Amino acid sequence: MKGSRPEQAVLSRDTDMTKTDATRAVIEGMVDGLNDHRIDDIGAFFAESFRWMGNTGCGQKNGLQSFQKNWQRPFQAAFHDKVCVDEARLYMGEWAAAFGRQEATHGGEFMGVPATGKRIEIRYMDFWKVEDGRITDNYVMVDFPHVLAQLGVDVFNGHGWEKYDRGEEEAPAP
Questions:
Q1: Are 72 and 99 within 8 A, CB to CB?
Q2: Which residue in 55, 104, 113 sits closest to 84, CA to CA?
Q3: Sign of the CA dihedral 38, 43, 48, 53?
Q4: How many helices (H) and strands (E) does the chain have?
Q5: Residues 82-118: pLDDT tens digits?
Q6: In whole angstroms, what is the distance from residue 5 CA to residue 8 CA?
Q7: pTM confidence score
Q8: What's the rounded Cα separation, in Å, for the pair 12 and 111?
Q9: Which of 86, 126, 137, 159 is 20 to 30 Å from 99 at the Cα level?
């Protein structure tokens, strides 16, 4: 890119590196709480006013009650016997990140798909900001197209770019 460049890493630029261990403790406790299927007392890890910012299909949850009501409860109703497996975690001051998967049974309606009883994988990436011992921001990407594909729904209607991986089509030239 020639010319001026956009400012980078604004949110994490001034992180307090002395808080790395405290951030790690909050995130590890929170993941254990999610694996224990805690909802009512999950505020032990999240600030009352925290923001959960998901990708399209997941929505935005502003505040702990919105997260509990509009994410945790519907998610647990759709997916039973759920376990979270972080494959990697990174900690830097007041920031933490992880990617991994949840393994769950599709036991309730999900995005219009009735329960199938299938055991599925739900891939995700999370970035958390921890302040004063609580998560204040959570940037989230949940791979709902992958979940739906496991349930027999192709959200890309055959136009996903996996076709380039399989050599079915040549990728367009730049």
A1: no
A2: 104
A3: negative
A4: 5, 6
A5: 999 999 999 999 999 999 999 999 999 999 999 999 9
A6: 9
A7: 0.90
A8: 34
A9: 159
